[in-house]
Amino acid sequence: MWFTREQFKLGSELRTWGLEPRFEPGDIVARGFADLGHEEFQVLPGPKLLSLTAGTTTPVPDGHTQHFFWIPSADECVSLLEKRGVACLKCERVDGREWLVQAQCCGEIEAHRAASLHAALLTTLLAACKRAYKEKTS
C-alpha cells in the first residue's frame, strides 16, 4: 500500500496528538526524513520491519520506535473512533471527487472531507484525538 502525502501528514499529526504507534504484525508504520519524505513499513513477526519502498527486512530498532508513527487502516480508524465515543453516521462519495465522513460525538455532528475514504477517516480520527487531548489538558 502506498500512501499519499496527505495520509502521511495525518498519521504524523495523529502521533503528535497522542496516537502511539503500534508494532503488531500487519500494522503499517512510517517515519519521516527531513529532506526525503516518508518511508513506510509493514510490521512482521519478530518484530521486524519490511520496507515497502526498498523491500528490505530489518529488526525493529531498539530505542527508535519514537521516530515512527502508525497509519491505521480504515477499519482500524472506525474502531478507534468507536473507542473514543465517536459514531460514524455516514461515509459517502460526493460528486465523484471526494469522500465525506459524518460523525457524531458528544451530541454534535461534524463532517470531514478528503480525496479518499481513508484520508477522511484519518481526519475524523485526528479531530477526535485533538478533542481528547484538549479535554485532558484543560
Could you please describe the fold and organization of this structure?
- The protein has 138 residues and is α+β, with helices and mostly antiparallel strands.
- The chain has two domains: 20-70; 74-137.
- Helix content is 31%, strand content 33%.
- It contains three helices and eight strands.
- The chain has helices spanning 5-16, 74-83, 117-137, and strands at 28-33, 37-44, 48-51, 57-59, 69-70, 87-94, 98-105, 108-114.
- It has a five-stranded antiparallel beta sheet with strand order 4-3-2-1-5, with helices on one face.
- A hairpin with a 2-residue loop joins strand 7 (98-105) and strand 8 (108-114).
- The chain is globular, with a radius of gyration of 16 Å.
- The mean pLDDT is 92.
Termini, distance in Å? Answer: 38 Å
Strand proportion: 25-35%
Helical content stands at: 25-40%
How many domains comprise the coordinates?
Answer: 2
Name the shape in a single word: globular
Q: Spans with pLDDT under 50 lasting ≥5 residues?
A: none
